[in-house]
Design brief:
disordered C terminus, OB fold (Dihydrolipoamide Acetyltransferase, E2P), about 775 residues, about 45% helix, 8-stranded mixed β-sheet, 7-stranded mixed β-sheet, globular, alpha/beta
Length: about 775
């Protein structure tokens, strides 16, 4: 049983991460052959092969169905069914965001009409839409409107959260916005008694009461999985103390409510005649867990926890001789059948890894009741130790305080805060005063919890280690050996490879060479330059009015992934938001030793130097030189940009910020050396820069355009890419290739690693990306 289930699970995971899907013809042919082979052999091996093949066929068919739901990018007419309450968001101006189904689609573009019609007839795409006006449509409304659709795209960068991947894995087919909201036609409204309508109305009604408490935002997260009001500072505290899982309704929360229901049901079952208290308790437990999952909107983590709960309860009630590992694999297989894209969610890996670690560590052991407290303490230690390899490989980092903090936070939350929250919710309509007292006490306890977490977060800094494949294997083996039963001889020797993994320095360039990583920060710029012992950042990308910034989202995760915990030099080319907007976030997070600016930037209090005059220095036999602007001129805006040339091992890099053609001409006439093997294209590939004369003088072998996918500026423009093409340059774009690393060594700038591109099968869909061959005919994007 374990072999065929394991084979099926491997098949599901293989397709989830496949770059392409097999065709229906290949699927049908393969399934037919394997079924025939199994009918002939009827062996355990053939059964496992059949399970693997059926899983691959099922997951592939699901993938084809999801790809068919991706609508054509561009403007379309649609009948839209609003599936969530509009959420007010902050941008340059307030706007609203909601989920919706595209019931029907009509496209005016003849080239995409066929795709549009096929999508509308085959499925109703689930999309996320913005409404840039007041009075948005409400949950259940059916409207007719013109919408501009794009497939969701996230930052493709080491350690960064991939928003596009998350959107597709959570069922979304596209994002977009309603065009001309004033001309929207309201057609009908869904019935008032649908599940989503009732849940949203309950959430809105309860939120009116919760918003008056100091930590009402966290109360909503714990009751309804509504984490939209948790701010950046609170998330940072949870992340630094390893307690983010407390805010995500998942296995721990559902398991807690399940336990409450089971013990209450068994207690009541004793007093009911002719009833099996075990069956009654299991039924009440399932009702409790399902009700809580319904409050949380049946999110994917709650669905996963419910499936695991059902498997555990069935095994308990049937009193079958089912091993724990059988129940574990059964739950995992059912989750994958329900959602073949579940492996793309961190919660899937972390939850099943945590349970697997517990089963591995406690297998064959019996725990007496008087050792219950010690068992709980040990189980917490086992989970934290067992998840270290996964957390480090995913770039989450760990904090030594997370173990004692969780020992304090989990009992406080599960035994006191959550019961008080549910008591307040249940008594709200019966006794508002009791609900208020319950929530007041819960608010006080949450304040105690957050104060303790904030203190712990400052006590010891989070540990972030760059994990190589070799150190990752050593770390995993060491942890598994440490989790073996106590009787295993010399198992504590595994501490040595564990320490080696933590103490092994992150890879760095050799003396005299340099690594250049162009980070994908969307419509902006950020370049990381590493030498043997030094680190420089050139620009940081934007900060948005909502508080979201690319330092938190991209730059810092990349630095941690590369084992960097301080910056020797920060260069902010000029004051534009897309280059320097996120600087305050970096200065709040990481130690920056020195800073150069192209022009003054408001809000930066750290001592800085101007880069307009000539400066030269050397790190680890790598030469750095700011090119000189004309004396006596005070420049602002794009032409204030710091122009930096780096020479390493016979290769060179030119960083130009947003300089425009007039400054390019000035540099050409200055007599300074401009030639470079690698050029970061000026001004993201705008037609205001990259003149023919400048490109000829630089003569780059590689040119990188740092621009956002589908940006409304049209960067890089076709005229600019054609100029580089004429001069024989090879073109790269963060919009399509994501972050990329070049090595300056051996007299060349060689591409070393790419973090973007069509990594998963839905990204290879014809309408999801443009052909880079249109941008530069000699483009090479080997991966």
């Amino acid at each position: 049983m374990l072999s065929w289930m394991t084979a099926a699970i491997v098949g599901f995971i293989a397709i989830a991460f496949a770059p392409e899907l097999p065709s229906y013809a290949v699927i049908a042919t393969t399934v037919s052959l394997i079924v025939g082979l199994h009918l002939r052999l009827r062996s355990g091996v053939s059964l496992a092969l059949l399970a693997f093949t059926l899983a691959v066929a099922y997951a592939s068919s699901y993938g084809h169905w999801r790809i068919a739901q991706i609508p054509a990018s561009g403007e379309v007419g649609a009948v839209i069914q609003v599936d969530s309450m509009p959420e007010r968001r902050l941008g340059f101006a307030p706007y609203y965001r909601f989920d919706a189904r595209l019931v029907t689609l009509t496209c005016s573009d003849l080239e995409v009409h066929k795709k549009c019609a096929a999508t509308g007839s085959f499925a109703k795409p689930f999309v996320q839409l913005n409404w840039y006006a007041e009075s948005p449509p409400q949950l259940g409304d059916l409207i007719k409107a013109d919408v501009l659709l794009r497939q969701a795209h996230g930052y493709q960068s080491p350690g960064a959260f991939d928003y596009g991947r998350w959107m597709f894995a959570n069922g979304y087919s596209a994002t977009g916005y309603i065009r001309k909201p004033e001309s929207v036609e309201f057609l009908a409204k869904r019935g008032e008694f649908s599940y989503s309508t009732l849940r949203q109305r309950l959430l809105v009604a309860v939120a009116v009461y919760l918003d008056k408490y100091r930590h009402g935002n966290i109360m909503k997260a714990l009751l309804f999985a509504d984490r939209s009001d948790i701010d950046r500072e609170q998330w940072q505290i949870f992340s630094r103390t390893g307690t983010s899982h407390l805010m995500a309704i998942s296995g721990m929360h559902i398991g807690l409510v399940l336990a409450w229901g089971f013990f209450i049901g068994r207690g009541l079952g004793v007093f009911l005649p002719r009833s099996n208290s075990l069956i009654f308790g299991a039924g009440i437990a399932l009702c409790f867990a399902a009700s809580y999952a319904a409050l949380a909107g049946f999110s994917v983590p709650t669905q996963r926890a419910l499936i695991m709960s059902v498997v555990a309860l069935l095994a308990l009630c049937w009193r079958r001789n089912m091993s724990l590992w059988q129940g574990y694999l059964t739950a995992m297989l059912l989750v994958l059948i329900l959602d073949p894209l579940a492996p793309h969610r961190a919660g899937f890996g972390l939850s099943f890894a945590a349970v697997g670690v517990l089963l591995f560590a406690f297998q064959g052991q019996r725990h007496r009741r008087h050792h219950l407290v010690l068992s709980l303490v040990r189980s917490q230690w086992v989970v934290l130790l067992g998840l270290i390899p996964l957390l480090m490989m995913w770039g989450y980092g760990i904090n030594p305080v997370s173990f004692p903090v969780n020992l304090f936070a989990i009992p406080l939350l599960t035994l006191l805060i959550m019961p008080l929250l549910f008591l307040g919710l249940i008594s709200l309509s019966l006794s508002p005063s009791l609900a208020d007292k319950s929530w007041q006490l819960a608010d006080y306890l949450l304040d105690v919890l957050l104060r303790g977490l904030a203190w712990a977060a400052e006590l010891i800094p989070q540990v972030n280690i760059a994990i190589t494949p070799l150190s990752g294997v050593l770390l995993t083996i060491a942890v598994l050996v440490l989790l073996l039963p106590r009787g295993m001889p010399a198992r504590w020797l595994a501490i040595l490879p564990l320490l080696m993994s933590f103490l092994t320095p992150a890879p760095r360039p050799a003396i005299g060479s340099a690594w250049v990583t162009v980070l994908d920060v969307g419509q902006g710029l950020s370049v990381l330059v590493q030498t043997a012992s030094k680190t420089m950042l050139y620009d940081l990308g934007p900060m948005f009015s909502s508080g979201f910034n690319t330092v938190d989202a991209v730059v810092v995760p990349a630095l941690y992934r590369f084992g960097i915990d301080e910056v020797d030099l920060l260069v902010l080319s000029h004051a534009d938001n897309d280059h320097a907007g996120a600087a305050p976030a970096l200065l709040d997070t990481m130690d920056v030793k020195d800073m150069y600016l192209g022009e003054p930037i408001d809000g930066l209090t750290q001592a800085v130097l101007r880069c307009g005059a000539w400066q030269r220095w050397q790190w680890d036999d790598v030469n750095f030189e700011f090119l000189k602007h004309s004396a006596g001129k005070t420049r602002t805006g794009n032409n204030a940009s710091c122009v930096l040339r780096i020479d390493a091992a016979g290769a060179s890099l030119l960083l130009t910020g947003d300089i425009e053609k007039d400054l390019e001409r000035e540099l050409l006439g200055s007599g300074q050396t401009l030639s470079a093997d690698l050029l970061i294209a000026p001004h993201h590939g705008s037609n205001t820069s990259s003149s023919n004369e400048f490109i000829r003088a630089v003569s780059p072998v590689e040119v990188v355009f740092s621009a956002g996918r589908n940006n409304h500026y049209g960067h890089p423009t076709a005229a600019v890419t054609q100029r580089y093409q004429r001069f024989g340059a090879r073109c790269w774009s963060t919009a399509y290739h994501g972050s990329m690393r070049f090595k300056l060594a051996n007299s060349a700038a060689a591409i070393d690693q790419i973090w973007g591109g069509s990594r998963y099968y839905w990204q290879a869909a014809p309408n999801s990306t443009a052909s880079m061959a249109e941008m530069c005919s000699n483009l090479q994007s080997e991966r």
